[in-house]
Amino acid sequence: MAKITIDEKEYEIDDMSDEAKAQLQSLQFVDGEISRNQMKAAALQTARNAYAQALQQALESKQ
């Protein structure tokens, strides 16, 4: 049986009500989206840093 720990208390997923299972599924979905967006933000920040560096180099080479 699958279990999940919430606030240091273990729950059997099969014993949860349908409402609790739906809330758990929504929570897991949102957690996944937050993680995906954090990774996306990190990639975008890396790209931004590279563009800023390239801009700085372009401005310096013009002088």
Please describe the structure with a list of short key phrases separated by commas or semicolons.
single chain, alpha+beta, 2 strands
Describe the protein.
With 63 residues, the protein is α+β, with helices and mostly antiparallel strands. The chain has one domain (17-62). It is built from one helix and two strands; from the N terminus they run ββα. It starts with a strand and ends with a helix. The model has no long low-confidence stretch (mean pLDDT 96).
Distance between the termini: 69 Å
**DSSP strand (E) fraction?**
5-15%
| Mass-distribution shape | rod-shaped
Alpha carbon gyration radius = 22 Å
* Biggest sheet features: 2 strands, antiparallel
Helix content: over 70%
- Which strand order spans the largest sheet, edge to edge or round the barrel? 1-2
The number of domains is 1
Q: Which sequence of SSEs, written as H and E, runs from N to C? A: EEH
Number of helices: 1
Instruction: Please state the average pLDDT score.
Output: 96
Could you say which structural class the secondary elements and strand pairing correspond to? alpha+beta
**Beta-strand segment tally:** 2
Low-confidence stretches: none
Oligomer: single chain
